[in-house]
Write a structure and sequence with these properties.
Distance between the termini of chain A: 30 Å
Strand content of chain A: 15-25%
Number of strands of chain A: 9
Helix content of chain A: 40-55%
Oligomer: homodimer
Largest interface: A-B, 67 and 67 residues
Largest sheet of chain A: 7 strands, mixed
Structural class of chain A: alpha/beta
Shape of chain A: elongated
Radius of gyration of chain A: 20 Å
């Protein structure tokens, strides 16, 4: 266990900013930038510098006064904090349009996320391949997860099946669930419930009240 | 202009919680609940009661000590704050799997979001219908937005086209952009850039560090 893992609770807002830092640092490294100040990093992310320093202080700092952050080592720390220094096997449950879109999504593989199979209950889809991955019967979901050590289950099925599918995956040992059905899945593993309508409502808020929200 | 519009900047975290309040209040109203305390509302949302009171205080309060919140009137206030007390016309640019999935998404219409057309540059798709909506040539995008008073443009096209499409829509008078291409779109309108990989990274963070993040 690293030191930064011993820190107390980290706010949800900080957790959500970490992947953004990660993306910005990837761009900086691609551009050959060796070090970056909290001011410059903040400007790229439309934050302020003290916010950036405070965020990294949650994990022990990493910066040096008057020097800033070394891009390569900060990137490596953020990768480690986000647990991206390993590979993950994903299954997608629901081989409809959303499942299709996620199976084809550009960029997941770069971060170590590998879709290994899709599952559906539609006989017309079972046996087909999507982006080279097999579509299997949802009846075999639990066995597949156990046999293949799948880490993450993505749910793109209908709302009415979502909790039941989550329960079956958790029972089979899945470690994380990414749910797109418009319902809050519950369970004793890490869960991200994505409510697409919520994002749209945040957009209409900004359309009405202006784009001036603080971070 | 209402009083709550005169308050200062509202934090991004509060804006993101508003749609969740909205969903919880809809459920409570459906259940026939007339009033709810900040404690009960907080428990449903896994927040604490003072956070709930503080959030609504950003907009002027709405609660009454010893009584709590009237569900119907709080719901109506939240709808108004989120600007959901009107209808919105959406176009989806990119009629691939993600465009398809969004055009079919259950629930948008309930909140007043109406997909009126999809756009693509693929001749094989142009002229077809998806969920009863026409797929039109992207060459006609600006004219369509102007002629039909479209409010929101959803981008599900490839990363390399995304900014250009956004510029064309803004030029044609669009008021908000919901972007799914893995790039930060910029422009002088309300914009929500959804980075699907970021959500996955937040999930792996929780898988590694536990689910105990504060709100």
């Amino acid at each position: 266990m690293e030191d930064y893992m011993k820190v107390g609770k980290v706010s949800d807002a900080v957790i959500r900013r970490l992947p953004r830092y990660y993306r910005e640092l990837l761009v900086l490294r691609t551009q050959g930038v060796e070090r970056v100040s909290s001011e410059k990093l903040a400007a790229r992310m439309r934050l302020n510098a003290s916010q950036v320093r405070q965020d990294f202080n949650c994990f022990g700092g990493f910066g040096q006064q008057g020097y800033g952050y070394n891009v390569t080592s900060l990137l490596s720390e953020v990768r480690r904090i986000l647990a991206l220094n390993r590979e993950y096997k994903l299954v997608i449950v629901g081989a409809g349009n959303m499942g299709h879109a996620l199976a084809n999504f550009e960029g997941f593989a770069n971060d170590g996320f590998h879709v290994v199979a899709l599952f559906d209950n539609n006989e017309a889809l079972i046996g087909k391949e999507i982006n080279g991955k097999p579509v299997l019967s949802v009846a075999t979901l639990g066995d597949y997860i156990r046999a293949n050590g799948v880490d993450i289950g993505v749910i793109t099925a209908r709302r009415s099946f979502a909790q039941e599918l989550a329960d079956a995956m958790i029972e089979a040992g899945i470690k994380g669930i990414w749910n797109f059905a418009p319902i809050d899945i519950e369970g004793e593993v890490a869960i991200e419930n994505v409510h697409l309508s919520d994002i749209l409502c945040a957009l209409t808020y900004r359309m009405e009240h202006g784009n001036e929200a603080e971070e």
